[in-house]
Structures are given as structure tokens and as C-alpha cells.
Amino acid sequence: MQRKRSLLILVLLCAMAMAFAQPTVETPAETVTVEFTDDLGRTVTLPRHIERILPSGTLAQYVLFPLCPEKFVGVSVSWSDSAKGIITDEYLNLPFAGQIYGTKASFNLEEVLKLDPQVVIDVGEQKKGMTENLDKLQSQLGIPIIHIDSSTTTMGEAYGKLGKLLEKESEAKELGDFCGMVLDQTNKIVADRKVRGIYVLGTKGVNVIAKGSYQAEAVDTLMDNAAIVENPTAKGTGNQVDMEMILSWNPEYVIFAQDAKEVYKNAKSDPVWSKVKAIADNHYYLVPNTPQDWLGQPPSVNRFMGLIWATKLLYPESATYDDYAEMKEYFRLFYHAELSKADYDSITKGTV
After folding, report:
1. Which residues in 249-266 are b (16+ Cβ under 10 Å) and which e?
2. Distance of alpha carbon 322 from alpha carbon 221, whole angstroms
3. How far apart are CA 241 and CA 198, in angstroms?
């Protein structure tokens, strides 16, 4: 009996030993990084889950803010005073990191390192030397930087890429769909005939957004852009011309940027501007700029506000949509804000 008991114990001990000796099968840990190929063709290693981002400039900031404001660790441009009451204080008071490109380039490397984003995201037009510049800056920072192409016609695609990258696909689709709706609506309205016009900016009112430039995408969509120059610039300041050239174009419509506000106010009494057909016929307007310019500066998603607003003015018989209702939806989606009818009337007051 004792022998049987001992044998049983021995068998049990062997079984236990064999069980403990079996190799442990572990579930593979989730990959913490992914390889991402941006629209410049650069392959960049990124965290799989991105919670801290920094936009590279104003255009990127305005594209990314509607999608994921909670992921911002800083801003590339300070919000304007008119953004108060629209953008919540939590986002108005984010640290300033500056922007990579443009005449106002002010990227602060020390501040960026302090903010510790997981990725810096650039959105917009590809520029000469951009690949080399981003690679160099990425090496200096030790922080990945990616570029996503965007334009008025491809904003839906840009949001699709960003939504997938930032795990915000449903939000990205809603934003992209809205941009597509506004663009399709405008294209249908202007399909039969575009009015001839120009978009004027600068304190002297002699700078124009030239036809065919990246800056002119929304203007070219809205109008038969009469501002044809030899070398259209990609700069937000546009091409400088003179009143003789503007008189030779003699546009049917003129849209003035906010920095040309004084020229707009005095156009009717000005001995030269009053000779332009648009001014004589009272077909000239001032672009609203709350909380930012509605038609350009920068050429980002704000241009869709301009398409809603200006299409209604330029084509009143065909544009039968409710511009306030569409703008209210824009503010909800792109600023996470409620736009009342009184607010809308106040923002657009004095622009026509």
C-alpha cells in the first residue's frame, strides 16, 4: 500500500514537473511604432497611437484643429482676437511654437522640444526643397515630421489620410464630406457662366491673387479670375500690380481682403477705383475675417467659408441654399462652436 502511494506521488510530481517545463506561449506585444510614407515619399517611423501633435504652420493648424484639438500640444500661429468666444480658452491659450515656412517662419526648436510632440504634421502644397528641409529639421529635433498634400479639390483625401493616422476616421469623413459638398455646390452654380472678377489685397489695394496660383484655388473656383500675370506667386501677399492693369482688366466684381479694408471703404469716391466696372455697379465686397480670413490667408479649410459666402453674393439667382445654415454647420465642425444668426449677421456686417 505504501509502495502504491509513493508511486502515485512520484507520478504526480513528474506530471507537475513536465507542466512547468512546457515553454510559455506569450501573446505578441502590440507593435508600438509603424512605418508611414508621407506625400513626399518619405518613410517615417511614427508611434502607432498618436496623442500629441504639433502643426507645422497656419495652414496645417486650421486643417488639424477641426479633427483633433485635444491632441494639440501647441500652436504654430496665435489665434486672432476675433477668435475669442468662438475657440475655447483651453485651445486659445496653448503654447506658441511658430511655423516652419513662409515669410513669418518662426519655428522655435527649444519650445518644440519642451512641448514634446510625437509628430509634427505639415499640410498643404509641396514646395521645392521640402524633402531636404523636413529631413534636416527632423534630424535636428529627433521628432518625426510628415507632410500631407492638400488643396481645395483634395481636402477630402487629406482628411482621409489624417483620420486614419490619428485614429479619427469618422470625424475625418464628416469634415471631408462637408468640404466636398461645398465644392460640388459651388461648381454646379458656376457651371453655366463664371463672372469676371479679381481678389484684391494689401493696404494699397494693388496686390492680387493671380489666376492659376495655389493661393487662387478658391478664387478661380468662384470667378473667371481676370488677374492674369506672367509669374503667379505662391505667396499669400499675392502679385503686386498697378491701377493701370486693374483698369485694363475692368472686372465685373471685386473682392477685397481685410488688409485692403480702407481701399474698399473709399473705392466709390476714389477717382481711379470708381472707374472700374465692379465699383460703378456696386459689385464689390469685403471678405469677413472672423475668426480668420474666409477666402485665403492662409489657403486652408477657411476657403470653404469663402465659397459659401461669396457664391451667394456673386450668383444670387442660382445660389438658393441657406448660407447661414451652412455656415452654422461649418462652425460646428471646424471650430467646435455654435454660431447664432445674430453672430453671423454681426460677422458679415459691412462686407457688402
Report:
1. bebbbbbbbbbbbebbee
2. 20
3. 12
- pLDDT tens-digit map of 321-333: 999 999 999 999 9
How far is the C-alpha of 244 from the C-alpha of 338, rounded, in Å? 44
Question: What are the pLDDT digits (tens) for 135-173?
Answer: 999 999 999 999 999 999 999 999 999 999 999 999 999
Which one-letter DSSP state was computed for residue 145? E
Q: Which residues contact 53 (CB under 8 A, 6 or more apart)?
A: 64, 68, 71, 72, 73, 117, 118, 119, 120, 121, 166
Q: What is the largest CA-CA distance in the chain?
A: 124
Could you tell me the pTM of the whole model?
0.88
Q: For residues 264 and 201, is the Cβ–Cβ distance under 8 A?
A: no
* Cβ neighbours of 203 (radius 10 Å): 11
Whose cell is 534630424? That residue is 139
What cell was used for 291?
475668426
